[in-house]
Design a protein that fits this description.
Blueprint lengths: L3 H14 L11 H25 L7 H16 L24 H4 L3 H19 L4 H22 L4
Helix pairs in contact: 2-3, 2-6, 3-5, 5-6
The structure holds heme C.
Length: about 160
């Protein structure tokens, strides 16, 4: 998501120019669905590592490495197109929890994505080496998720 929001801003202007009632017609439904799917995959994989870190499930080097690698891949993919301009919770209340500030304060959100990518790369290198490797890196990942949610996601 490094270039994501920027790409989207460029696409967004195109969208705004051609937009009339299309938003109300569910124009952004698939993009919103897709980004929620990315988030769900983050949560699933981070949940595996979190459970190991807390001792709720036994540490398994292979499983830890896979989960960490999945997070790394997700965090370094360019999913900018799933964040089109105008697909925020002010424009589409009830459909999305993405605050309009994610776009209006750009590139702040992208900076957090970058922090997440860095943390995910570190985790992918450490997760298979032992439980301590998972424990040492999980805080940085969770911290990036949390920071973005605090700033740019509506509470439920
Ligand atoms: C760059 C900002 C950002 C980062 C980083 C981020 N999220 Fe999110 N997340 C959001 C936004 C914005 C939403 C709301 C999306 C929507 O409703 O359209 C969201 C939604 C979610 C959801 C709810 C999905 C749904 O079905 O409604 C989960 C779960 C989630 N994030 C988990 C995570 C996890 C775990 C991480 C870290 C590995 C993470 N997120 C990192 C911004 C971020």
């Amino acid at each position: 998501m490094k270039y994501g929001f920027k790409l989207v801003c460029a696409l967004g202007f195109v969208a705004v120019a051609g937009m009339s009632t299309s938003v109300a017609d569910g124009h952004f439904d698939n993009a919103i669905k897709a980004r929620k799917a990315v988030m769900t995959l983050y949560a699933w994989n981070l949940g595996q590592l979190g459970a190991m870190a807390k001792g709720e499930i036994e540490y398994n080097a292979e499983a830890a490495e896979i989960a960490a690698e999945n997070i790394r891949i997700l965090a370094t993919m360019n999913n900018g197109a799933v964040w089109p301009q105008g697909s925020d919770s002010t424009a589409l209340p009830g459909k999305t929890r993405a605050k309009v500030e994610a776009w209006t304060t750009y590139p702040e959100s992208a900076e957090i994505s970058k922090t997440l990518a860095t943390a995910a790369i570190a985790m992918s290198e450490a997760a298979g080496t032992g439980l301590e490797g998972v424990r040492a890196n999980i805080g940085a990942i969770g911290g990036a998720c949390k920071e973005c949610h605090t700033k740019f996601r509506e509470s439920e």
